[in-house]
Structure formats: C-alpha cells, structure tokens
Design goal:
The chain is an alpha+beta fold. It contains 3 helices and 8 strands. The radius of gyration is 14 Å and the shape is globular.
C-alpha cells in the first residue's frame, strides 16, 4: 500500500471493510487485543476487512508504540474459535506507525473463546446470533 492509498482510506473513513481503532486510548495490551478481535471477527463473518490500529475514529493518526506484531496476531488467534488467521502490516505515516490487521471472509463463522460472535453491518460491528 502506498501513501496515497492510505491517505484515501483515512479521508473516506470507516466502511464495511475498514475500521479505525485507537492505540493510545486503550489502557493496555489486553484491551487492544479485545478491540481488534471484535472488529476482525466481525469482518471475517461478513466480507473481510482491515482494522487500522493507531487511527482515531476521525481518521487522525495517533500511531502505535511498544508493540509486538507476533504477540498481537497470536493473541487474536488464541482468542477466537475456530482460530482466526490475521495478516499484520506495519505502515509508516507522518513519522507514526499504523498496524493494519486484515482478515478474509472464508465462509466459516468465527466466535471468541468466551462465546461472543460479531458481524460487520455497514460502518459498525454488531452481535451475530446463531439464528442468522
């Protein structure tokens, strides 16, 4: 992805396949993982998509720091059933790092290890119930 593509995503904002999550507002690693899991699971249960960690809802880039991408993708994998495979790319923008976490839709329904299930609906992620 080049800078122009990223700037276009930031300008358009959240969509059915794009979500922004703040890294700085999350209290700790566990909260960051929870935010990522809910969104990524929602994307995987819909049409796939990317969560941009380090980006505020407004599209302002605040960046990520003190992270371990391997630990992040393994934590997402460990908290989902069946385990969800996530691609993670580090993007540099205005001297800040954005983590782009992507999943594909493969027809499998994913849930968390504690039994929650979500699905992307427009610009929001909503509960996804067994009857659906």
């Amino acid at each position: 992805m080049d800078i122009k593509e990223l700037e276009n995503i930031l300008k358009i904002g959240e969509t059915t396949t794009v979500a922004f999550k703040s890294w700085v507002k999350a209290k700790n690693f566990k909260e960051r993982v929870e935010l990522a899991v809910d969104e990524l699971m929602g994307f995987a249960n819909a049409q796939g998509g990317t969560v941009y960690m380090g980006v505020e809802d407004s599209g302002d880039v605040t960046g990520c720091f003190d992270y371990d991408t391997q630990k992040l993708i393994e934590s997402i994998y460990d908290k989902t059933r069946p385990p969800l495979f996530t691609e993670c790319k580090e993007l540099k923008y205005q001297n800040k790092t954005i983590l782009a976490l992507s999943v594909k839709h493969d027809g499998i329904t994913y849930a968390t290890t504690d039994g929650r299930c979500t699905k992307r609906l427009g610009k929001n992620t909503k509960p996804h119930y067994p009857s659906e």
